[in-house]
Amino acid sequence: MENGGVDDDAAFDRLASAVYIAARAGAVDCTAAFDLATSRLEVSPLDPDATELASLSLEFAEASQPRMAELALSLLAAAGFCPGFKEEPGWLASLEDAVRLVNRDLAATGIGRSCRLHVDVERHGIENAYVETWDGGTSYCGISPDCGADPVPALVAVAEDAQDPLMHALWAAWPVCPLHRLGVHAGAYQKAAVWWCGGDGGHAVAAIGEWPDR
Ligand SMILES: [Zn+2]
Questions:
Q1: Max CA distance (Å), the chain
Q2: Between 82 and 123, whose confidence is greater?
Q3: Nearest CA to 207 among 182, 162, 175, 166?
Q4: How far is ligand 1, taken at its centre, from the CA of residue 181, in Å?
């Protein structure tokens, strides 16, 4: 952020979060939109999006709402604002769905334990989600919120994040290709999230969440 101290950054983050949520719902508050536009104009006085948003927010016209929402989202992106789970709760829901699918594969491979999703803001100063095993283990980096934006990348990210702590919890690679006895990796293949085995030139063992029962 180009502006001053921590307080300014915190105030900007609160404004950005509120405007983002409103813009995604298609109804931007004119005062907040004006504040966002002027904060952009302070650092970039000729910014056309900010100029247009500032003048639309002064008009208070209902018909301008969709355009204001569009401008607000583009200004937030330009300011480097990254939405988190608070702004995009659907992203968290899709990561939760993905954990359920990984748990289904744990059950299919005869492991009677399951993982859960844990959101932690403290560890890296940013809000990431971590797949946590039954013994409390997690990966180091976790999953950034935007991974939840699309179901296939969400599932790949969750399965990848689960593998490291699962390996520690099980003291073994998981899951293992039944044909080649090799540990497999999560990946995207033909627009699906799959468990990929490197044996015999590589093959998809199963879609993640559809591991064949023993
Ligand atoms: Zn294999």
A1: 67
A2: 82
A3: 175
A4: 7
Instruction: Please determine, for residue 5, whether its predicted confidence score (pLDDT) is greater than 60.
Output: no
CA distance 25 to 17: 13
Distance 208 CA to ligand 1 centre (A): 15
Distance 214 CA to ligand 1 centre (A): 15
Q: How many whole angstroms from 83 Cα to the centroid of ligand 1?
A: 38
**Closest C-alpha among 160, 147, 11, 153 to residue 88:** 147
Q: In angstroms, rounded to a whole number, what is the distance separating the alpha carbons of residues 162 and 116?
A: 10
pLDDT-derived band at 121 (thresholds 50, 70, 90) equals: confident
User: Looking at residue 1, what is its pLDDT?
Assistant: 45
Distance 93 CA to ligand 1 centre (A): 31
